[in-house]
Amino acid sequence: MLAVELTGPERFTVFVDRPEGVDHALCEQVTRVLWDYLRTYAVDVSSPGLERPLRKPEHFQQVVGKRVKLKTAERSKLRGEVRRADEDAVTVAADSGEVDVPYEQIVRGNLIYEREQ
Fold first, then answer.
1. Is position 84 within any domain?
2. Residue 31 and residue 25: Cα distance in Å, rounded?
3. How far is Cα 117 from Cα 77, in angstroms, rounded to an integer?
4. What is the DSSP letter of 95?
5. Average pLDDT by stretches of 10, the chain with 117 residues
């Protein structure tokens, strides 16, 4: 999985993920591929971390039953457990009840890291 996030007018971050994990060697390989962009932009290459970004329907489908935080065009912030995720929307159980959020309204989505007991 690759995701790109604009973090400033002259800076962007590339998130790299793969099932076997991300190490410095992989980040270095991706940085080399992006070498030409380094003349104009500050480029960060990173693993998605514990609170990985969620952007596509399949990302949300993989975290059904887990807690997420969303920033949408309609609501500033929404936190809750993913109950369902289909091709058009994700259903989140928030404090205010279940909310269906169409993917096109999501400005930013992240998994909430919860330490396993």
1. yes
2. 10
3. 27
4. T
5. 82 89 91 93 88 89 95 86 96 93 93 77
pLDDT of residue 73: 83
Number of domains forming the structure of the chain: 2
Q: pTM, whole model, 2 decimals?
A: 0.70
Alpha-carbon gap, residue 58 to 113, rounded angstroms: 19
Same domain, 42 and 65: no
* Cα distances (Å, whole numbers) of residue 101 to 44, 56, 71, 85, 104: 30, 13, 10, 10, 8
Cα distances from 19 to residues 41, 93, 113, in angstroms, run 29, 28, 18
